[in-house]
Amino acid sequence: MKDYTAPLADMRFILREIAPLSEVNELPGCGDVTPEVADAILIEAGKFATGVLSPLNQVGDREGARWKDGEVTTAPGWRDAYAGYTEAGWNALSCDVTHGGQGAPRLVSALVEEIWNGANVSFTLCPMLTHGAIEALELTGSEAQKSTYLPKLISGEWAGTMLLTEPQAGSDLAAVRTRAVPRGDGAYLLEGQKIFITYGEHDLTSNIVHLVLGRTPDAPPGVKGISLFVVPKFLVNPDGSLGERNDVRCVSLEHKLGIHASPTAVLALGDRGGCVGWLVGQENRGIEYMFVMMNAARYAVGLQGIGLSELAYQQALWYARERVQGSELGSKSREGVAIIRHPDVRRMLLLMKSQTEAMRAVASVTAAAIDTARCHPDADRRAASQAFVDLMIPIVKGCSTENSVDVASLGIQVFGGMGYAEETGAAQIFRDARITPIYEGTTGIQAADLMGRKVARDGGATIRRVIADMRTVQAELEAAGSPETSAIAGRLRDGIAALDAAVDFVLSTYARDIRRASVGAVPFLMLFGIVAGGWQMARSALVAHRHVAAGRGDGFLRAKLATARFYADHVLTRAGGLSQQVVGGAEGALAIEDENF
Amino acid sequence: MKDYTAPLADMRFILREIAPLSEVNELPGCGDVTPEVADAILIEAGKFATGVLSPLNQVGDREGARWKDGEVTTAPGWRDAYAGYTEAGWNALSCDVTHGGQGAPRLVSALVEEIWNGANVSFTLCPMLTHGAIEALELTGSEAQKSTYLPKLISGEWAGTMLLTEPQAGSDLAAVRTRAVPRGDGAYLLEGQKIFITYGEHDLTSNIVHLVLGRTPDAPPGVKGISLFVVPKFLVNPDGSLGERNDVRCVSLEHKLGIHASPTAVLALGDRGGCVGWLVGQENRGIEYMFVMMNAARYAVGLQGIGLSELAYQQALWYARERVQGSELGSKSREGVAIIRHPDVRRMLLLMKSQTEAMRAVASVTAAAIDTARCHPDADRRAASQAFVDLMIPIVKGCSTENSVDVASLGIQVFGGMGYAEETGAAQIFRDARITPIYEGTTGIQAADLMGRKVARDGGATIRRVIADMRTVQAELEAAGSPETSAIAGRLRDGIAALDAAVDFVLSTYARDIRRASVGAVPFLMLFGIVAGGWQMARSALVAHRHVAAGRGDGFLRAKLATARFYADHVLTRAGGLSQQVVGGAEGALAIEDENF
Question: Fewest CB within 10 A of the end CB: N or C in chain B?
Answer without folding.
Answer: N
